[in-house]
UniProtKB/TrEMBL annotation:
Name of protein: Thymidylate kinase
InterPro entries hit by this protein: P-loop_NTPase, Thymidylate_kin-like_dom
PANTHER family: THYMIDYLATE KINASE, UMP-CMP KINASE 2, MITOCHONDRIAL
ATP-binding listed as a keyword: yes
Organism superkingdom: Bacteria
UniProt source species: Pseudarthrobacter quantipunctorum
Lineage of origin: Bacteria, Bacillati, Actinomycetota, Actinomycetes, Micrococcales
Sequence similarity: Belongs to the thymidylate kinase family.
UniProt domain Thymidylate kinase-like: residue ranges: 7-177
Pfam families for this protein: Thymidylate_kin
Assigned keywords, A-Z: ATP-binding, Nucleotide-binding
Amino acid sequence: MLIVLTGIDGSGKSTAARVLVSAVLADGGTATLLNNHAGRRSMSVLGARLGFRLPRRVADALETTFRVWNVLLNHLRASRTEGLVVMDRHLYCQLALRATKGLPRGRLLPWLLGKLPAPDAVVHLEVDPGVAHERIAARGSDTETLEDLAAFAHAYRQLPEYGSFKKMDASVPVPELARRLARVVHELGRAPTEGRPPVAI
């Protein structure tokens, strides 16, 4: 079973994914966490330290390269992995970032989405940009403006794929968010996708 988590920075994707996988493992199930990062945070921190910001098209080219590589590699890993696979981020995230920067979708990412195995669910963690901004400030490892976060949230909602996402309130505490994610997983396990065998988690 493949679950993808999406959402703006500060929505709690990585934390919720880790807690969910840990809970499944603690219950004796099989679960794997795969990260589809694009190096965006690292480039942002490095740029802040050096006092420059990459042109948006250059930044997108670098992020897309890293993201596509990770997504392809992790789909290969997922195909060889039993039980639950949770992907933290995916190509949807890069498409939303492109829209935030005013860049076109292009052809490669939509084409890849059509060719890669479809996730059993894409769970979109929704949170108010103000709350996300406070969380990012509290962790202190990177910076995002409130305006950019609001634009990112809007860009996600404008994605053609957004209507098929399972939306989840990410403003709740992490343990409750993990429980809600676990319920989604169990519901999918009871009603497997046509043509796929039930998955034990």
